[in-house]
Amino acid sequence: MTIKSIHLATVSLLVSFSLLMNACSDSSAQQDAFTYLDPDAPIDERVEDLLRRMTIEEKVGQMNQLDISVINQDDGEDMVRLDIEKAREFILEHNTGSFINGEAVPPEVWFEFMDGLTRVAVEESRLGIPIIFGIDHVHGPSYMSETTIFPHATNLGASFNIENSHNSGWVTALEMADVGHHWNFAPTLDVGVNQFWSRYYESFGEDPYLVSEMGRAYIEAYQNNEEIYPYKLASNAKHFIGYSATETGWNKTPVQLGMQQLFEFHLPPFQAAFDAGLMSVMISSSELNGTPTHASHDILTKLLREDIGFEGVILTDWDEVGKLVAFHRSAPDFKEATYMAVKAGIDMSMTPLHLGFYGNLLELIEEGRISEDRIDESVRRILRMKFKIGLFENPFPRNDRLDRIGSEESRLKSLQAAQESLVLIKNENEVLPLRNPSRIVLAGPSANSKRNLAGGWTIAWQGGEEEQYPEEMHTIYTALQAEYPDATIDFIPELPARSNALMNRLNRADMIVYAGGEEPYSEFLGNITDYNLPQEQRDEISLLSSSDTPVALVLVQGRPRLITDIYEGLDAIIHAGLPGFEGAEAIANVLSGAANPSGRLPFSYPMHSGHYVNYNYKPSEMYFFHPDNQDPFSEPNPGTMLHMFGHGLSYTTFAYNNLELSSDEVSKGGSITATVDVTNEGEVAGRHAVLWFISNKVGTVPRPVKELKHFESIILEPGETRTVSFVIQPEQSLWYPDSNRQRVYEDGEILVRAGDLYLPFHFKN
Ligand code: BGC
Q: In three state form, how does the secondary structure of 39-96 look?
């Protein structure tokens, strides 16, 4: 045995011993074999053994989740300082089984906190059931300082490279496990169908297949990270289901979706996650088809449990039981709301600031309105998750390898993700890359900001204060200084009004870089009424565009703000999204050509306010009868979207040739292979995501004009050709669900598309 494994074995033995001592104080249990403490016993037996020892209060406590503010020291200083007496009150008197949230404090502070909290649960409670700690580390451990912060999900989607989503999940697990954070409220699997939604950046994009693949890669990496041994973590995907289909773009607008649509466009990412072993889901806080999802027996029990067969934990969103009263007004009081949510099928309530759910549920059981059997169902699932992640064997955090947090290796993974996520939307006259400039004018609200690059859910819910970000983190300004050490970076923090002096200053530069976009926001605080890029920024950009110098706009934004009226005046545009802590370096690399841009839009960039279209739209008169467009399978007409899903330029060009199919017919159980040659025709190496679409010519339920079914990210040297393939299997790609979630396979002609090439084949049942 190595020293490390001896240490771990000793810790594990001590834990089992202290649990046994606690449990033995329960006299009825004294003669028993403590199966639940036996790491070698099957998990289901451990769960049943523990369940039968638990009082009803202990069971209900497991279903309750509280915010850490209730157990923090209340002295007005930083959060994340445990008040041990409060922890005892909540855990020992009220049996609380889970806590959440926190602030961005150093790993050592988290270690102290989690160690103390765990000791109360494991060493002092009657049965020694460890608490499970949940947190929103949605793009790296964002509620901890000194960690690696990845780009947000929409950026990962833009990379069309699942390795980046894998790395984000992997690094997040690596950096949170040792401090005792067990359960991450990520990934977000909501499909970004409304580009103006205030949570847009949390979605991987507008296509269900893209979201599915990115989500699956994240969950597999996060839940199966071997580097965190002996720990294992649980992922909590969110928000089940339809949350993103907000009609107005405002968060939590009631959602109306036909079941066919829900199953075809919103369920696939969750299904892929369930297939990947996802341990829990969080419920959508919207109303879906007239019922708040938290009160919907049809969605939570009939669909999710009975029909889909999901066996993991169903967690509410923040105070959503309470919001059945205060927000949705569908329950008269908190007790009825508790009844509704439990009857609908929730397992755990993120209550999160009081014991209302706990007290109400005990009363409902006492009154016979909710049975103990129903409680057992939920507690079983919660305990099973705790056993599955090894919490009973390894409940304590450790501080002997915290130096792995924020390592150079992880930082480089985040940098790679950031580089690959930048989308070069426009590059008139190939003004980019900008090599060997002597002078660059830099302006715009994101030019010298760290917080804008990382967005919401970083350091704090709405993003931190500028000075809370790591000292060594670059802004675009400092990154340009590092990228171009011999050039003058003429940064203009406040752009003055037009004057001769200003125009001379602009005209002397080789390029003007304007870094605009949005400041951080999350949830409803990101609701807006005007989707245009703010007027002030558009005015500044127009002023800069009137100079003789080329202007490159860098959009640091969580959603595609409208730029239609300034588009023509710009020479280059980079949609940078929210690229995280390494974002500025990635932007400088792309501007200079040190990195060749390879991101592709994971959404359709809207052109007009009030009119947004997803690329996989259904046939519509507007497109079909347009004079330039008589082909129902072609792309929508200009005038509809500024740029289509998948658009993204490179410093090289990729040509598609020789699209071939191994056969022109396929049936269920069979497959055909499509191949295409992709050639790098330019002078520089480049990464390129090959996107494969299909278009069904016939569908009883009218089919989208085209649908992404496969993608692959490749790197090609100048002049290199690679043959890439897509194995088309009907069971994977050639069916759609009906409104009962039954698969529909329809005979007919289908087009397979890669680049601007397409070929038909037949599907026959
Ligand atoms: C959000 C969730 C988040 C939760 C806990 C809610 O308001 O909708 O996405 O996980 O808060 O912070």
A: CCCCHHHHHHHHHHHCCHHHHHHHCEEEEHHHHECCCCCCCCCECHHHHHHHHHHCCC
